[in-house]
Structures are given as structure tokens and as C-alpha cells.
UniProtKB/TrEMBL annotation:
Domain of life where this protein originates: Bacteria
Protein YjdM C-terminal domain ranges (all copies): 44-111
Pfam name, any one: YjdM
Entry similarity comment: Belongs to the YjdM family.
InterPro entries, per database record: YjdM, YjdM_C, YjdM_N
Name of this chain's protein: Protein YjdM
Listed PANTHER family: PROTEIN YJDM, PROTEIN YJDM-RELATED
Species for this entry: Pseudidiomarina insulisalsae
Protein YjdM N-terminal domain ranges (all copies): 3-32
Length: 111
């Protein structure tokens, strides 16, 4: 049995061949094994679930807002996140009542 590469999108090891394409059953990503694959970072929440742009997440820890006396409370839902690879914060978002901010994936879980 040949060893197939893991999915470049979600790193799943359960890829399978369908004709000339490789397919991931977990995220439905399809790619050709002959094409060079650019390494895309996989963002995971505190529980290990993969995150994508547009997801809704829930904050799992009280987070102080730098330069302010405001606090993002546990359980705050943040909708329509945008994932970035700039700096040490992975998520650009708008938090209701606070405004635009950046969060780390380790402090959120997928809703």
C-alpha cells in the first residue's frame, strides 16, 4: 500500500485517491499530487479544531484590552473572524462593545 501525503489544508492523514486527484474526506480539499503545494498555515482553536475565515468563535478566558480598562469576558461570541499570519496574534475581528481587535487562537474555541 502506498503512503499518501496528508491534506495540505487541514493536515488530515485520511486522504485518498480519486483518479489523478487526492481528496481529503474531512475538509473536502482536492489537489493534484504533481503540483507543488504551498504550505498554508493551519489555525487551530484551544480544543484543536481547525479554524477558517468567517467562523464564529467563543472566548474561553477573560482578556484584558491593552491601553484600556475594558475586558473581553469569557463566553463572548465573535462572529466572522479573519485569520492572519502577521505577528503573534492570529485572528482579526470586531468584538461587540469593544471594536476591532486581534486575538490569539489559543484563547478561543469554535462555536
Amino acid at each position: 500500500m502506498s503512503q499518501l501525503p496528508p491534506c495540505p489544508n487541514c493536515a488530515s492523514e485520511y486522504t485518498y485517491e480519486d483518479g489523478a486527484m487526492l481528496i481529503c474526506p474531512e475538509c473536502a480539499h482536492e489537489w493534484s499530487p504533481n503540483e507543488p503545494v504551498a504550505a498554508q498555515p493551519v489555525y487551530r482553536d484551544a480544543n484543536g479544531n481547525s479554524l477558517q475565515d468567517g467562523d464564529t468563535v467563543t472566548v474561553i478566558k477573560d482578556l484584558k484590552v491593552k491601553g484600556s480598562s475594558l475586558v473581553v469576558k469569557v463566553g463572548t461570541k465573535v462572529k466572522n473572524i479573519r485569520l492572519t499570519d502577521q505577528g503573534d496574534h492570529d485572528i482579526d475581528c470586531k468584538v461587540d462593545g469593544i471594536g476591532p481587535m486581534k486575538l490569539k487562537t489559543e484563547f478561543v474555541k469554535k462555536a
